[in-house]
Design a protein that fits this description.
The protein has 346 residues and is an alpha+beta fold. The protein folds into three domains: 94 residues, DNA Primase, Chain A, CATH 3.90.580.10; 129 residues, DNA primase, catalytic core, N-terminal domain (DNA primase DNAg catalytic core, N-terminal domain); 101 residues, 3-Layer(aba) Sandwich (Dna Topoisomerase Vi A Subunit, Chain: A, domain 2), CATH 3.40.1360.10. 38% of the residues lie in helices and 17% in strands. The chain has 14 helices and 15 strands. A hairpin with a 4-residue loop joins strand 3 and strand 4. The radius of gyration is 22 Å and the shape is globular.
């Protein structure tokens, strides 16, 4: 069976090679790596090394190596498709959603990436529009102090109050069905389809490979809910997502800072702090920590200085311990968050 690359990537993002191999043999920590006696040849000194950051294994004795699929194929004596199906079951990846009833690839994933990219360009153009984007630009540049360079790099956009994305995409051949699947449109009780995001700053959500999987948004005022994200889709699951990881991954080999929201992250980046990701709220998950373990050795949690933020930091410490990664927290004074702290204190 042919598996599209999207399936392979999703499984690899969820399957931690250290955890998979540990189900067969005990691994011993050796710095940032793990080691054990090679299961594929006789030896007395451990030369079988597992690299959690690169998600690979290699034996320096017999030369065998590869990724998590390679390990299962050799260990279980199974084919590549069988290894994919086995890991999909273990990680909860629903393979069937990538295929039509006839077994052919449906193309839904590639279509979602394509429509998200087109939507992002639409939102960006709105922000640059002299009239439509005036209020949003003033909010970002003047009230929040975000530079044009950072706005451009993170491809921030704007969804106007009167909408327009739905008709923009429909004129280009996109159906209401795919826009619902992408989380870009909603169906009202009276059966009318409308834009999901209205009168909001738009933050494209990139996966580690740089493809847009969804969108986050913020109101220009402080009415609640201030933040609205894309719903769960075939390509986006908030519990397994970290905002900014695609930009930060080259800077976090030693340590990473975890903040709550988009603007916290953007403010830190603007001040030259690039080893930062955002968990999009205080509900830091095991899946997010396991994803970070592939890129870094240490996590530093900096949430808002309110009770919810401090409680979340303590929960995060427990998760760091349980997931076997070095971690720490910075407790900010009441009423401050990383964004306001760095802008006021520098």
């Amino acid at each position: 069976m042919f598996f599209p690359q999207e399936i392979i990537k999703e499984i690899q993002e969820r399957a931690d090679i250290v955890e998979v191999i540990s189900n067969y043999f005990p691994l011993k920590k050796a710095g940032s790596l793990f080691k054990t006696l090679c299961p594929f040849h006789q030896e007395k000194t451990p030369s079988f090394i597992v690299n959690p950051q690169k998600q690979i294994f290699h034996c320096f004795g017999c030369g065998v190596g590869g990724n998590v699929f390679s390990f299962l194929m050799r260990q279980e004596n199974i084919s590549f498709p069988e290894a994919v199906e086995m890991l999909a079951r273990q990680t909860g990846v629903n393979i069937s959603r990538y295929f039509s009833k006839s077994g052919e690839r449906s193309g839904v994933v590639s279509r979602l990436y394509e429509v998200n990219e087109l939507s992002s360009l639409y939102y960006q153009n709105n922000l640059l529009n002299k009239e439509k984007g005036r209020e949003a630009r003033r909010y970002l540049l003047e009230r929040r102090g975000i530079s044009q360079e950072v706005i451009s790099r993170f491809r921030i956009g704007y969804a106007p109050a009167q909408g327009g994305l739905l008709s923009y995409l429909q004129k280009r051949g996109w159906t209401e069905e795919i826009l619902i699947q992408a989380g870009l449109a909603v169906k009202r009780e009276e059966g009318i389809y409308t834009d999901k995001f209205l009168q909001k700053i738009i933050f494209p959500l990139f996966n580690p490979q740089g493809k847009i999987v969804g969108f986050g948004s913020r109101r220009l005022d402080n009415q609640v809910p201030k933040y609205v994200n894309s719903p769960q889709t075939v390509v986006f699951n908030k519990s397994r997502y970290l905002y900014g990881l695609n930009f930060a991954k080259q800077f976090i080999k030693e340590s990473v800072i975890i903040v709550e929201g988009y603007l916290d992250l953007l403010s830190l980046v603007q001040y030259g702090i690039c080893n930062v990701v955002a968990s999009l709220g205080t509900a830091l998950t095991r899946e997010q920590i396991r994803l970070l373990k592939r890129y870094t050795q240490r996590c530093l949690l900096i949430y808002d200085g309110d009770k919810a933020g401090q409680d979340a930091c303590l929960r995060g410490l427990d998760l760091f311990i349980e997931e076997g990664i070095e971690g720490g927290v910075v407790l900010l004074p009441e009423g401050l968050d990383p964004d306001s702290c760095i802008r006021e204190e520098g």
